[in-house]
Design goal:
With 213 residues, this protein is mostly beta strands. Helix content is 9%, strand content 36%. The protein has helices spanning 27-41, 59-62, and strands at residues 10-15, 18-23, 45-47, 78-79, 88-94, 99-105, 112-115, 119-124, 130-133, 142-146, 151-161, 167-177, 183-186.
Length: 213
């Protein structure tokens, strides 16, 4: 249960089409790191959900399509140890570099894992900026509370081989990300910019009527 009573603190979460403060915000950094560890260990992934929009810092190492969100009790990350051996999972956190990693300990099954480059399709432009008045901000101040991102569909292919070189997992990891918007809040004394006019549609080319020479 993700709650303050269980020791979770407040951080950023995606809810209702916005990035807001919520209990358990940031736990997706843990689930993303664990997902990538299970991915490269060659374990079957039973349940994995992408974030609503593309988050830049999740793509810094593995690229897009390798994040995993959780939202109790509806959205979870699950993988299975399908070997005959026990699996010990340890996690380490470096406060200096604010980095987290997992280590898996077990008897080796001799598996190897390959990952394709991500394939990005159906790219959609980010949504228009949103400006909101916030009376609690000091006069003349502007604060950005959400950041724009393109929408897209991303697929990553994973192949897992056993010790004999036989394929035991051959799958596409599919992610759908919606376009996102910048959101700015402004205090007294600020005149927000006018929204840009909608683009003028381009008329289709006219068809010439053939004539006799």
């Amino acid at each position: 249960d993700i709650s303050e009573e269980e020791g979770y603190e407040t951080g950023l979460i995606i809810f209702g089409g916005r990035t807001i403060e919520g209990v358990g915000g940031g736990v997706c950094q843990v689930s993303t790191t664990l997902f990538q560890s299970a991915f490269w260990a060659g374990f079957p992934i039973l349940e994995r959900w992408a974030h609503g929009y593309r988050v830049g810092y999740y793509e810094a190492g593995e690229g897009p399509g390798m994040d995993a969100t959780v939202f109790s009790p509806l959205v979870d990350l699950r993988f299975v140890n399908n070997t005959p051996y026990y699996l010990l999972i340890e996690n380490y956190y470096n406060e200096t570099y604010e980095s987290l990693w997992f280590k898996f300990y077990s008897t080796s099954m001799g598996r190897t894992v390959t990952k394709s480059d991500p394939v990005v399709r159906n790219i959609q432009p980010a949504k228009p900026d949103i400006w909101e008045y916030n009376e609690e901000l000091p006069e003349g101040e502007i604060e950005q509370v959400d950041w724009a991102a393109e929408g897209s569909d991303v697929s990553v292919h994973r192949t897992v081989y056993n010790r004999d070189g036989q394929v035991i997992i051959d799958e596409d990891i599919i992610s759908h990300y919606v376009p996102w918007q910048n959101i700015y809040q402004y205090g007294p004394g600020i005149e927000p910019p006018s929204p840009p006019p909608p683009p003028t549609p381009t008329p289709p080319p006219s068809e010439e009527t053939p004539t006799n020479p």
